[in-house]
Amino acid sequence: MDKLVINGGNPLSGCIEINGAKNAAVAIVPAAIMASKGTCTIDNIPDIEDVHCLERILESLGCNIIIGKNSVVIDSTSINNVNANTEDVRKMRASYYLIGALLGRFKKASVELPGGCPIGVRPIDQHIKGFEALGARVEIKHGCVTVEADRLIGTNIFFDVVTVGATINVMLAATLAEGVTTLENVAKEPHVVDVANFLNSMGANIKGAGTDIIRVVGVKELKGCSYSVIPDQIEAGTYMIAAAACGGEVTIENVIPKHLESISAKLIEIGAEVTENGDSITVKATGRLKGVNIKTQPYPGFPTDVQQPMSTLLTVAKGRSIINESIWESRLKHVDELKKMGANVKVEGRTAIIDGVDKLSGAVVKATDLRAGAAMVIAGLIAEGSTEVLSIEHIDRGYPNIEDKFKALGADIRRVSCSE
Ligand code: EPZ
Q1: 290 and 324 share a domain?
Q2: Same domain for 293 and 215?
Q3: Which end of the chain is less crowded, N or C, counting CB atoms within 10 A of the terminal residue's CB?
């Protein structure tokens, strides 16, 4: 097992490039199994453990896969298995997209219940509600979700909560249903739109992704296509926050600035300068930043997935900041780690009250989940002295080459084996 060792205090400067979006890729790769003809060539795939996990799962279902550098070619014409029950399936959240994809194409599937980050209860009732509305029988037994339908028939579905996972999963199944499905109160995240665009490239007929209502006209079959995944909004947001927290000037390339508006707005409110230039964004910060209040919300609101990195920045901002985490009930576990570094934070339920301190001090801390890991890396970068971030397998699930990217910006950070 590895850890990251960081000597804090260096300002960041220079350029880095953002990779393809994790949360789009982890839906697009399973969606590729819906092609009954041809192969899917997918570019701008991030080199992260969650994607590798899915590639292994697809192979276990009988797909032929060629993995390139930041690309994958998936031939799913010879799938011979609709039971996804390997350790990899249990390990990650996005394996639940196999349910919608297999149900759409084969009208049946059996998929182990998904794992993922320990950030609170992660129900799938809205996924099940959608599959049932389309005509599937759904059963959960022995830790496995089994779905089966004689036919899938389009219908109207109104989600009780705005959910990325259920929006994408039910959209997958509806793509190959008979007739028209209308999904209401859907998630509008950029990755929802990206999955819809990918499915349309395969021959689907989906309109409205990115708005509150998605309309899917079912088609008989999908075929292979070539597609490039959008840049990662959350990876970009993390580096923007790191740049502001460390001070200096960083240009983040290969981004869609529109997807970053809520993060840019907060950074400007905090006192950083943010400049958009085509497909890049520059963050500059000098002097002490000031505290702000944040409430996480579905897109286009402030994303829960950068709440933890932002909370690190706020530990050294001037004055009081209040963070309200409205999406996940336990996404403030990293606060105990920040406190080891001298942060002054009080957690009350889903709210963190942060009183900015002058500086953090290096300590041995752990990544309690993926984005908490990024938060601890930023904490190490701004702290005085040396920080060791343990349990970085969480970080490797979602951030490609994190130490190389920070090193390129002037940080003193290295990966070492825990046995060293
Ligand atoms: C996706 O999770 C992301 N994961 C998460 O990112 C992200 O935090 C989340 O969306 C919100 O943006 C992936 O895309 C793989 P949801 P997902 O369904 O789809 C409730 C990261 O760091 N809900 O949008 O699982 C749920 O409890 C990860 O990259 C139901 O009540 O999240 C939550 O409060 C962590 N019933 C809210 O909806 C359901 O059936 C949003 O969940 C489904 C969800």
Answers
A1: yes
A2: no
A3: C
In a shared domain, residues 35 and 106: yes
- Averaged pLDDT, 330-335: 95
Question: Which residue, 128, 189, 194, is CA-closest to 159?
Answer: 128
Catalytic residue among 40, 53, 63, 117: 117
255 has pLDDT over 90:
yes
pLDDT of residue 122: 82
| Calpha distance 169→94 (Å, rounded) | 10
Question: For a substitution probing ligand 1, which of 113, 164, 192 has the most ligand atoms within 8 Å of its CB?
Answer: 164
Q: Annotation-wise, does 123 bind a ligand?
A: yes
Which residues contact ligand 1 via a Cβ below 6 A? Answer: 22-23, 26, 93-94, 117, 122-127, 161, 163-166, 187, 304-305, 327-328, 370-371, 398
CATH number at residue 399: 3.65.10.10
Chain center to CA of 125? 20
Ligand 1 atom at minimal distance to the Cα of residue 187: 24
Considering 228, 258, 291, which residue would you say is the last residue of a domain?
A: 228
The closest-lying atom of ligand 1 relative to the alpha carbon of residue 191 is: 14
Is 402 within 8 Å of 356 (Cβ atoms)?
Answer: no
Q: What is the pLDDT of residues 43-56, one digit of tens each?
A: 999 999 999 999 99
Say if residue 125 carries a ligand binding annotation: yes
Report whether the peptide linkage leading into residue 300 is cis, meaning its omega lies within 30 degrees of zero: yes
15 in active site: no
3-class DSSP state for residue 277?
A: strand
In a shared domain, residues 164 and 236 = no
Is the domain of 245 the same as that of 206? no
Average pLDDT over all residues of the chain = 96
What's the longest Cα–Cα distance across the chain?
Answer: 64
pLDDT of residue 351: 97
Are residues 257 and 220 located together in one domain of the fold? no
Query: Which domain range does residue 206 map to?
Result: 22-228
Q: Which of 127, 163, 329 for mutating ligand 1's site (highest number of atoms within 8 Å of CB)?
A: 163
Query: Which residue puts its alpha carbon closest to atom 27 of ligand 1?
Result: 122
**15 shares its domain with 26:** no
Our mutation pick for probing the ligand 1 site, out of 97, 138, 161, counting the most ligand atoms within 8 A of Cβ, is 161
User: How many domains, the chain?
Assistant: 2
Same domain, 124 and 257: no
Q: What is the pLDDT of residue 116?
A: 66
Q: Is the pLDDT of residue 177 over 70?
A: yes
* pLDDT tens digits, one per residue of 271-307: 999 999 999 999 999 989 999 999 999 999 999 999 9
pLDDT at residue 128 is higher than 90: yes
- Domain boundary (193, 228, 263) is at 228
- The alpha helices in 247-348, defined as continuous H runs, are 261-270, 307-315, 334-340
Q: Residue 328 Cα, ligand 1 centroid: separation in angstroms?
A: 8
Q: Does the annotation place 305 within a ligand binding site?
A: yes
